[in-house]
């Protein structure tokens, strides 16, 4: 039963993240008058397809991806869709010949540079929208009020109170990083060294710098040391406006976690051995599903924002890399030669594929050793 729950939960999460991402590309391409030959959820053989207004909508066998095939785009899916346009496809349900999409728009390479940039960025944008909507639902469904960043009370004798913090302080930043939500404080304090951090607070209407605020610690039965916050914060009434603000700030919080984790990986603060691949992600989804629908939706929000951030990185194989190529074209008036784009993209795909294999190996090793 747990396998079935994990499978269905993973199908739901991956399906939602992929579908909304591809819908972003699809919708903006349509708005910009670009011909969309196919909008597909899943990869591999088609289980179902239908043609409407010049676009073939497909549901395919393997729920491991999806794509939008645009006229004039240099991708295998787009080129295949263009090739099949004038070649009747074997029918799915006994028709004499399957209908092929007609052209209702222009090729992508004939669209203005700014339009192509919008098409490329739209997928990631919709991932952020999905994350925002999910977080709105989660915050609205919780019984407790929204957690603020305003200190309500300092515990008696707490070290943080003796080294700078006061009741009524609104935490603006920890160690120079702006705090959007209460979780930002926790995240930065967990990363802090020697159980101390620099705070920026709003006190009596003025911004006050509090260097080297220290925190108490305690030791558990296994001998591990933990930080004790030593203060509590106010709750915020859950009005529609406050829910929307908290959801928007939470998107920024998740996005910065992803960015910070990548930066830590590059700087060597985090080990590459900590990377997780598809196996680790599916395992995490299964665990979240076993805890309840709210944990599953919270993981969905994290994953979809993660996909949005990663896709905007200026890497040739990703949407962000394509945007860089288009930016160069917009500034210079000349497109980056397709041979150079193709070579960089192939090299980038090889690197990403290698990282995925390495991360999957780590996942399997952790499963065998019981680390996850």
Helical segment count: 10
Strand order of the largest sheet: 5-4-6-7
Number of strands: 10
User: What overall geometry do the principal axes of the alpha carbons give?
Assistant: globular
Biggest sheet features: 4 strands, antiparallel
Which CATH class of the domain at 146-236 applies here?
Mainly Beta
CATH topology of the domain at 146-236: Pdz3 Domain
Strand fraction equals: 15-25%
CATH H level of the domain at 146-236: which superfamily? PDZ domain
Low-confidence stretches: 92-98
Average of the residue pLDDT scores: 87
Any chance you could write out the topology, listing elements then pairs?
Layout: H1 2-31, E1 36-52, E2 55-70, H2 76-85, H3 113-141, E3 146-154, H4 159-162, E4 170-174, E5 177-178, H5 182-191, E6 196-203, E7 206-214, E8 216-219, E9 225-228, E10 231-236, H6 240-267, H7 278-291, H8 293-311, H9 319-332, H10 338-369
Antiparallel strand pairs: 1-2, 3-10, 4-5, 4-6, 6-7, 8-9
Helix pairs in contact: 1-3, 1-7, 1-8, 3-6, 3-8, 3-9, 6-8, 7-8
Task: Summarize the structure in words.
This protein is of the alpha+beta class and 372 residues long. It has a domain at 146-236: Pdz3 Domain. The chain has ten helices and ten strands. It has helices at residues 2-31, 76-85, 113-141, 159-162, 182-191, 240-267, 278-291, 293-311, 319-332, 338-369, and strands at residues 36-52, 55-70, 146-154, 170-174, 177-178, 196-203, 206-214, 216-219, 225-228, 231-236. The protein has a four-stranded antiparallel beta sheet with strand order 5-4-6-7. Strand 4 (170-174) and strand 5 (177-178) form a beta hairpin. The longest helix is centred in the last third of the chain and has 32 residues, at 338-369. The relative contact order is 0.12.
């Amino acid at each position: 039963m747990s396998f079935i729950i994990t499978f269905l939960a993973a199908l739901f999460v991956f399906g939602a993240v992929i579908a909304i991402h591809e819908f972003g590309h699809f919708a903006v391409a349509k708005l910009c008058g670009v011909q969309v030959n196919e909008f597909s959820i899943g990869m591999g053989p088609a289980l179902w397809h239908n043609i409407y207004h010049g676009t073939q909508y497909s549901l395919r066998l393997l729920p491991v991806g999806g794509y939008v095939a645009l006229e004039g785009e240099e991708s295998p899916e787009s080129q295949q869709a263009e090739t099949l346009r004038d070649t009747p496809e074997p029918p799915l349900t006994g028709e004499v010949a399957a209908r092929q999409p007609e052209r209702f728009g222009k090729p992508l390479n004939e669209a203005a540079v700014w339009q192509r940039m919008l098409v490329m960025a739209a997928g990631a944008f919709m991932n952020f929208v999905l994350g925002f909507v999910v977080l709105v639902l989660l915050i609205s469904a919780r019984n407790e009020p929204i957690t603020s960043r305003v200190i309500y009370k300092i515990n008696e004798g707490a070290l943080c109170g003796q080294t700078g913090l006061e009741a009524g302080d609104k935490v603006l930043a920890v160690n120079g990083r702006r705090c959007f939500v209460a979780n930002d404080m926790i995240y930065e304090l967990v990363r802090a060294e020697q159980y101390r951090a620099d705070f920026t607070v709003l006190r009596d209407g003025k911004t006050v710098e509090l260097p080297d605020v220290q925190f108490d610690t305690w030791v558990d039965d296994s001998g591990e040391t933990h930080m004790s916050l030593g203060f509590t914060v106010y709750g915020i009434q859950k009005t529609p406006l406050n829910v929307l603000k908290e959801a928007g700030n939470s998107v920024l919080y998740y996005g910065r976690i992803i960015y910070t984790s990548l930066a830590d990986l590059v700087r060597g603060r985090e080990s590459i051995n900590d990377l997780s691949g598809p196996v680790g992600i599916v395992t995490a989804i299964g665990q979240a599903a076993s805890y309840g629908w709210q944990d599953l939706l919270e993981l969905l929000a994290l994953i979809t924002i993660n996909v949005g951030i990663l896709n905007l990185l200026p890497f040739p194989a990703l949407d962000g890399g394509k945007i860089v190529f288009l930016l160069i074209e917009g500034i210079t008036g000349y497109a980056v030669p397709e041979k150079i784009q193709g070579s960089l993209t192939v090299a980038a795909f090889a690197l990403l594929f290698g990282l995925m294999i390495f991360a999957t190996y780590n996942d399997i090793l952790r499963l065998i050793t019981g680390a996850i």
